[in-house]
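Meet the record:
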Amino acid sequence: MILISVMLALALDKLFSEPKHYHPLVYFGQWANFIEGKFNSDTAKRRHGIIAVLLVITPVLFTAVLLAYLSQLNSVLTVLVSASVLYVAIGWQSLIVHAQNIISPLKEGNIEQARKAIAMIVSRDTSELSDKEIAKAATESVLENGADAIFSAIFWFCIAGIPGVVLYRLANTLDAMWGYKNQRFLHFGWCAARLDDVLNYLPARLSAFSYAAAGHFNLALHYWREQGGNWKSPNAGPVMAAGAGALNVSLGGAASYHGKVQLRPVLGPEENEDTIADYRSIEKACNLINIALLCWVLSIALIWAGRLA
């Protein structure tokens, strides 16, 4: 059931990408904004954020549990419902399309269009990025979002079915909305950020190992071990360090966020003419995602075959 559901969900994503209209996460985001408006303020504490997370997630998670229970009435229904939920939760083709929208103008030397495209997937300031900085930002985003939007979702679906993948996707969405260390969310967003960290801990490391298996294995493991713990995010660090090593490309370094330059650690090898990021590193990152995803599907198939033996 799990293998068929995963393959069907990936097929749906390949054919249709993410839903263009009436995406459930859009409505969830509106619900989350409503709850934040009721509980967040200049005097909000961590407890307000904890209550808000529970209020936002609980009704949706209850619906997911009920849906999983009702779908068990028929094996075909189970597969169809499970695959549909997983399809909504993953963002494989959407990520690839966003990457391609950056690759194409970089190839053509259209820096302004590339800046507009990269602004769609990163939170850093993009108005003055060079072509190298755009390529670096895009490569980082593909690697990090590949773990978040694809592999972590599949992991929690395999572990806990429909409720598992729904809980993960809701937590990940709340982290993207509330998990900022600024005045507005420093205390209120603490619970959302920590919940996402906990749920991503194991799948992030499986993703990092998958990147290693799909690329330069020894380099990926080396930079994961040496640099993964230096990043501000406990889960993005291993993923991006392993990805940088797997691609043999230099990532990290200075970046501007909301007008302030952050000196981020270097990920992967030191920058030189052989390891500098360009449009080809984005293409390679997309290929790395695809190969790693194939490894995941084959691994699920082998586990399934072993259980039948």
Q: What stands out?
A: The radius of gyration is 20 Å. The mean pLDDT is 95.
